[in-house]
Specification:
Number of strands: 5
Number of domains: 2
Oligomer: single chain
Number of helices: 7
Length: 187
């Protein structure tokens, strides 16, 4: 069965698995090693990067159009589930999470977010777990933001609200407030 032909249009947002969401600027012809190739020029504004992907290699590279709102919502709902088994050592789990993030698949991104999110306000994460979580959340939020016409920060917050991820508590602010109250009582 032949592979389906992906049809991309200039100005369309696309997902490149290892970079996230970018905008297809144009399709241009370039001569490389004596061969003429049609190249897709994709701008990743957030990363300040431009990527050129040969048109005939787009599907193999994992390049895809944005997912539908329905499929992204399904992925977010799956991230609300119970965290997966954590019986393997962290290095192997981290490698698996990295692979899932770089897959560009919304369901695999949701799996990483589900497994690494904080369940209570007192939960803490290691630095590496937090970085993986934030990368997976950002990749999901990139598509969410474009599909719902909002900025990336709002999209990340909205996803975390849907998931019920507790907000971080600023303990320093409450301590300072208490000190100010004490000073006024003494006067």
């Amino acid at each position: 069965m032949p592979a389906k032909k992906l049809d991309f249009k200039t100005g369309q947002y696309v997902v490149y698995p290892t970079q996230g969401v970018g905008k297809l600027l144009r399709i241009e012809e370039q001569t490389i090693a004596g061969q003429k190739l049609k190249m897709m020029v994709i701008d990743f504004d957030r990363n300040h990067m431009t990527l050129r992907v040969p048109l005939d290699r787009a599907e193999i590279s994992g390049l895809r159009p944005l997912t539908s709102i329905k499929k992204l919502d399904e992925a977010i709902q799956s991230a609300k589930g119970k965290a997966g088994a954590k019986r393997m050592i962290w290095a192997r789990r981290a490698a698996q999470y990295e692979e899932n993030i770089n897959s560009g698949d919304p369901m695999k991104l949701a799996e990483v977010v589900r497994d690494l999110q904080r369940r209570t306000a007192t939960d803490t994460m290691t630095f590496s777990a937090r970085q993986l979580y934030l990368r997976a959340l950002e990749r999901m939020a990139q598509e969410f933001a474009i599909l719902h016409k909002m900025d990336l920060e709002d999209a990340s917050e909205k996803i975390e609200d849907i998931l019920g991820v507790p907000k971080e508590i600023d303990l320093n602010a409450s301590e300072e407030d208490e000190e100010e109250v004490d000073e006024t009582d003494e006067e």
